[in-house]
Give the backbone structure.
Amino acid sequence: MIAQHQIEETVSRNELQQFGAFVLQYVHGDALPDYKAMDLMQIPKLVPHIWVYDLRTQKGRQRLLNNFCGSHIDATWHTSLQGICDLDFFDGNPTMEQIGQHRLNCIEHRRAGYSKRYIEYKKPNGCQTVQFGECLIFPCATNNGPVNWAIGCGVYESTQYTGKNIFIEF
């Protein structure tokens, strides 16, 4: 499992460093973090940036079903994503499809993941924009059993610039 120093060496946003430290509190030895044991009210300022995938069903696992999606993420994409599968939402946008594949790989390989990317996105009003996003994702399992949940944190902002996309599995 990833260590806090790896997060601090890789991640530029303070919110993601705090999120990583929070999740790592629920890691024991080489086991994955236990989502069921987490109390998100310990990090209330980060909750708007958090999403949780419910991976207990085949559809949830294959399509990344959002069980919870924070208000900052919903506002970024101009829609409520709770109950929506991310891979369906990502469909047709090459960068977003890369994000989905990266998250699936992290879940399959039982490894934390990090991404930093620039996403060209058409707003509901038809205007084209670029969203810069930086995210951490952690697959979760109770007693190191099957990965039934994944929790992530994303910070997004509009920008006029693009850059190189980065995807890392720790």
User: Anything to note?
Assistant: Residues 64 and 166 are 20 Å apart (CA to CA). Residues 4-169 form a domain with the Beta-Lactamase fold (CATH 3.30.450.20). The radius of gyration is 15 Å. The helical segments are 4-10, 14-24, 58-63, 71-77, 86-90, 94-109.
